[in-house]
Amino acid sequence: MDKINLLALNADEVKGFLTRFGEPAFRANQLLDWIWRKNADSFTEMSNLPLVLRRQLADVAVIGILKLLRTQESKDGTVKLLFALQDGQTVETVILPYDIGNSVCLSTQVGCKMGCAFCASGMPGFIRNLAQEEIMEQLLFARRIEQARGRRVKNVVLMGSGEPLDNWDEVLAFLQAVNDPQRLGMSLRHITLSTAGLIPKILELAAKKLPLNLAVSLHAADNDLRSRLLPVNKKYPVEELVAACDQYTAVTGRRVTYEYILLDNINDRPEHARRLTELLRGRLCHVNLIPLNPVAELPYRPSPPGRVKTFATVLEEAGLNVTVRRRLGSDIAAACGQLRNLFCGDPNEG
Ligand code: SAH
């Protein structure tokens, strides 16, 4: 029989689970403290629990199921982790170094249904959703690694493989677990969810009034081009997408980030920048320009630096708030759009 994964349980469920061992109630708090505060991944280390209980727990329960298959570290300090899940599928997680404290980029699905033209994650198609505890364990794992290196995880981005709003139930359960004071107890202000633009879910998310940061993969301001790059645009056109984001800002007070990958000669000319300023004019928002991380099999190339600069200037002159994303981890195929959950045969890797 499968062991119980304690990462899938909330505090009350852990308490309920412990009653079968006839232990006093405070044991549950000790166990929760080990898992969520002290980062334990085994029962052996839980020194304030009776040895017999530790053994009994190890017989029936686990703290997570991920198996680390490989760790790669980039010259710039980015770390990419490849995990095996219980069913043999694999998933990648990236730790990104920033001066203010590191960010962890989590995957929410194995594969992806979105089929964006420039992204590697969707190339194998959609395989399956990750469960809340599988998303959470990526974060706990990264936190453990960072702790061992004397560093902290400050921010979490749901920008790994998968479309988080296409895995609604598990992603919401994950956000709840992150925020739950009896579990991770982290403010959602430190979490950013990135979506290709599933409008009904953006509106549902807005209605929940969470202080979560929303990022939207825009990449083009007109429907023809955007539909070519992100097929999801055929269903959810760009003006309606921006209106949904306005609603998100109106309800939550959070500024939306628009992500815009600059693709050489595709969407990076001054007229594209002007269309973008027309689309976003007057909005409380932020534009994040992303130099493309090339994927070997795909025909797109990054815009030359000069064109990136001109593009940014057009936006700034129109009063938009703009940053150019630092490109981290591209030497280990850990950059945005390069995650593909393949253990073997990755042409991006030496
Ligand atoms: N499905 C979600 C989250 C995953 S992608 C989304 O679409 O937003 C996270 C970010 O990486 C998005 O902005 C996405 O557009 C970007 N991205 C994808 N492929 C990329 C590539 N090859 N180079 C740079 N960024 C890429």
Note the main attributes of this structure:
alpha/beta, 350 residues, TIM Barrel, 10-stranded mixed beta sheet, disordered C terminus, 10 helices, binds S-adenosyl-L-homocysteine, 20% strand
The overall average pLDDT, rounded, is 92
Number of helices: 10
Overall body shape: elongated
CATH architecture identity of the largest domain: Alpha-Beta Barrel
CATH superfamily of the largest domain: Aldolase class I
Q: What is the CATH topology descriptor of the largest domain? A: TIM Barrel
For the biggest sheet, the summary is: 10 strands, mixed
Task: Tell me about this structure.
This protein is α/β, with parallel strands linked by helices. The chain has two domains: about 5-60, DNA polymerase, domain 1; about 65-330, TIM Barrel (Alpha-Beta Barrel). Mean pLDDT is about 90; it is low at about 340-350. Helix 4 packs across helix 5 (about 170-180), helix 6 runs parallel beside helix 8 and helix 9 runs parallel beside helix 10. The strands form three sheets. The protein has a ten-stranded mixed beta sheet with strand order 3-4-5-6-9-10-11-12-13-14. The chain is built from ten helices and 14 strands. Strand 4 and strand 5 form a beta hairpin. The chain has helices spanning about 10-20, 25-35, 50-60, 130-150, 170-180, 200-205, 225-230, 240-250, 270-280, 305-315; strands at about 5, 60, 65-75, 80-85, 90-95, 100-105, 110, 125-130, 155-160, 190-195, 215, 255-260, 285-290, 320-325.
